Amino acid sequence: MFRNLMSRLFSQEAPATPLRGQDAEVALAALLVRIARADDRYTAQEERRIDSILARRRGLDANEAAERRAAAEMIEAEAPDTVRFTRLIKDRIALEDRSDVLAALWEVVYADGKRSADEESLVRLVAGLLGINDRDSGLIRQRVMSELGVGEA
């Protein structure tokens, strides 16, 4: 699965075709992992949050979500720079799903209860790359912070 997805995701020859099902979720999970690793502290809370997001998005059980995250960790390690990686994902996910993806990214940023300028900065970059303007990104961020009970401090 890992090598096949890597070749489909990063192939330079094929035109950008939408990723479907499991492939799409693993690619998006890899972006979640990249955000979690942005501050050089990839914590168990962040892993659990990613598992929770994956389970919620596709109705996976805990083991399936953890397996998908493990595949995503390998893909993230092999993925090109964040700009190219995010553009590849943007070209392959539906516009209507991008706000949900951004909300999931903000969830991961605040999963460990600590604010990280590195993680927040990377999410802001990714939001723009996904075609989400600053205002909408800020509203999504505020909603997620409120849902998670995270303060602005």
Automatic annotation (TrEMBL):
Coiled coil: none annotated. Gene3D superfamilies: TerB-like. CDD domains: terB_like_2. It holds the Pfam family TerB. InterPro entries: DjlA_N, TerB-like. Residues 26-142 form the Co-chaperone DjlA N-terminal domain. This is TerB family tellurite resistance protein. It comes from Paracoccus aurantiacus. The lineage of its organism: Bacteria, Pseudomonadati, Pseudomonadota, Alphaproteobacteria, Rhodobacterales.
